[in-house]
Amino acid sequence: MPPAPSSRPLDALAIIVTIGLCLSWGFNNVSIKLAIHDIPPLIQSSTRSAIAAIIVFAWTQARGMPLFKRDGTLAAGIWAGVLFALEFVLIYRGLVWTTATRGVLFLYLAPFFVVIGSRWLVPGDHFSLSQWLGLLLSFMASSSLSACRRRRPTRTRCSATSCSSAPAPPGRRRRC
Questions:
Q1: Does 81 fall in a domain?
Q2: How many domains does the chain have?
Q3: CB within 8 A of 101, min separation 6: which ones?
Q4: Cα(103)–Cα(119) distance, rounded to whole angstroms?
Q5: What is the number of other CB atoms lying within 10 angstroms of the CB of residue 29?
Q6: Choosing a second label site near 126 at 20 to 30 A (CA), which of 69, 93, 145, 148?
Q7: Using CA atoms, how far apart are residues 127 and 96, in angstroms rounded to an integer?
Q8: What DSSP letter does each residue of 85-116 carry, written as one string?
Q9: Computed from CA positions of residues 94, 77, 47, 61, in that sequence, does the dihedral angle turn out positive or negative?
Q10: Domain boundaries, position 113
Q11: Domain presence at residue 94
C-alpha cells in the first residue's frame, strides 16, 4: 500500500466552502421538518434528487466529461444509487416520526460505522490509541444527546420543529 500523501493546511477558499457545506447540511433536516406539513417527505426527496441530477448532468456537460461512457461501472453505480435512494427514503420518512435534532444525531453516527467497517475491509488501516479514545468520546457524546428526553411542547413554545401538522403516529394524539 503506498504511503499517504502529506497533509497541508486548508486555504481560505477551502475553509469557506467547508463551512458553507456544513451549514447547508446542518439545516437540511430542519428544512425537511419545516416543510413536511405542506410537502410530503417522498415528494421533497424526489424533487431534491431530480434537481441534483440535472445539476450534475449540466456540470459534467460543461466540463466535457462523458457521463454515459462504457467503463464497467454501471452495476456499481446502480447499486450505489439504490442504496443512496434508500437512505433518503428512510431519512425523510423518519423525520415524520421524530425531531430534526434526533435525525441529525442519527446521521452523524454514520462515520462510526465507516471507521469500524474499515478496520475489517481496508488492509493496513490502523488506529492509534488516541484515535480510538476520540472515537469513543464522540460516540458517548452522540449517545448521551440522543438519550435526552424531549420536553413536551407548550402553547408558548410550539414551533414548526417541535410540532407540525404532520399526522401523529398511530395510537397517539398530537400535542399542539
A1: yes
A2: 1
A3: 161
A4: 26
A5: 24
A6: 145
A7: 38
A8: HHHHHHHHHHHHHS-HHHHHHHHTTHHHHHHH
A9: positive
A10: 16-64+74-147
A11: yes
